[in-house]
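Need the bound structure for zinc ion, inputs here:
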Amino acid sequence: MSILENNEKLSSAMADIAEVAGYLWTKGWAERNGGNISVNVTEFITPGAITPLSTVTLPRRFPALGGDAFYVTGTGKRMRDVAKAPLQHGAIIRLHPDAGAYDIIADRIIAPTSELPSHLAIHDFARAGGAKVVCHTHPTDLIALTHRREFLQPRVLGRMLWSMIPEARIVVPRGVGIVPYHLPGSLELADATIAALDSHDVVMWEKHGCLAVGADIIDTFDMIDTLSKAAQIYLSARLAGFEPEGMSNDELEEIRRVFNLLPEGN
Ligand code: 2HA
Ligand code: ZN
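Answer from helper R.:
Posting the output first, comments after.
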């Protein structure tokens, strides 16, 4: 029996994951097994005993996550397949109360993404702020910009993206951080990402991809999508042979005031 049976809320959460996985694929941001998603689904899991399918020890404890349940995409699984059937290409896991191990509780034994420790480290950090979703993907236009040294300086890329279209300042209010290149899946990458998430909604990984954290998977996708639009405006102008002017600091500050947004770096 599927864990989704008689559980409308969990089924609806899976439908949202499938919807976003489909967007990542159709956007061209998820070649082969590129990208991964994890979502805290604790509130949708009916309390009580569930016989674990398998138990795995974690490389370290994630103290804020004891007892929490997550949907997580499977290792080596293609996002275009997650879009069709999230639970056949991912797993629901539940951490032990001491958060040092997890059980796979649904629907079959599928090993989570090799990025699981990084995702859990980020959830562990961001949970208190209400984060439920970690989404990593490979948006071509945004990655292209990280190949330019100037954009690797703190705040340069984030400011440029904000200045391309008013929506970017509003939809991504805490802006975009930049993390220098680290080996994919490494704890160094996770640690640098957590440091950047302290003051940003989305983090760019140099020459690799982006990672966004949010309370809702559709909103989390919208942030990346809006930044990708900003990157396309910049690149389209460059392709047309001119440097885009960008909105002025005064114009950005006006949006911040009118929409009641935090100042940069908060
Ligand atoms: O899961 O994108 O960064 C595949 C990746 C690793
Ligand atoms: Zn990646």
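Comments: The chain has two domains: 1-135, 139-266. The first helix runs from residue 8 to 26.
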